[in-house]
Every structure is written in structure tokens, then in C-alpha cells.
Amino acid sequence: MVSFAISGNYTDLYEISMGEVYFLEGRDAISACFDYFFRKIPAEGGYVVFAGLDDLLDVLTDLRFTAEDIRFLKELKFDDRYLAFLESFRFHGTVYSAKEGEVVFPGCPILRVEGTLLETQLQRLPPLPLTRMPQAPAPTRASHGLHPSQIDRRVPPRP
Fold first, then answer.
1. pLDDT higher for 81 or 51?
2. Can you tell me the distance from the alpha carbon of 51 to that of 131, in angstroms, rounded to the nearest whole number?
3. Taking all residues of the chain, what is their mean pLDDT, rounded to a whole number?
4. pLDDT over 70 (residue 16)
5. Quick one: which of 10, 11, 18, 33 could link to 114 by a disulfide (CB 3.0–4.6 Å)?
């Protein structure tokens, strides 16, 4: 369980600005999905063990823009209609994931996040540090019997 809160401004201004464009153009409700994967195993390890899913789901469940976030974005001249939307923003998408503790390999998705274009855009950064920091390269090289993980578990955000 995450012992800290992450507000909507945890993402960068690029993601928030793109969200504003989608919102103002009426494209915010289009269905979208993003796959998360890594390109290279750190520290020359043979494989990586997936970890951090519970923290990620907690963050996505609690993700919201605080009054302080909204004031900051207002100072940056974001559209008032978009800011009103962000005040009540909640993530309602679906997360598909490798299983906690499962061995994962470069180039293979470890997470897929589906939802509206706007909500998938706004949640794009939190999964990166929350799932990468807990992972550690396994101490041995992968053997021939190991295969890339399959995304086979549907993990909906908690209510």
C-alpha cells in the first residue's frame, strides 16, 4: 500500500496540456490504451521480476487534482472548462498486468491501461516509477525454459 499521496500534477505539463487539447477538441472520450514495457534490463541482469502493482492500483484509484493543483494550472492559463473537469477527474479505466512476482522481459508489455483518451493520457507517468523502482534484475541469466510473460490478468482499479 502506498504511504504517500500523488496528485494529478505528479505527471508533467506535456500530459496535462495534451489532455486539454483532447478535451477542447471533444476527443477526450475516445477509447485508448497504452502499453508499458522496458527496453533494456538494468545492471546487465538476465531478467526482471515484476513488482509494484498494488501501489500503482492505489495511486490510480486515488489520482485526483487538488485545489492547489487547480490554482497552479489556472496561473498557467489553462482553460476554465478544462480545470472544472480536472476538479472532478477520477480514473475509471482498466489495467491489465503481468502478475506480481512474475518474470518479465524487455520489449514485452508489463502493463496495459485502457480507458478514455483523456484519462489514459493523464495517468501515463505514475506507472513508470511505481512499477520500475520495485523491480530488481534477477541474479542469474534467463534459461531457455523461460518465456516472456503474457498479460493474462485483468486488474480493475479498486472502487
1. 81
2. 6
3. 77
4. yes
5. 33
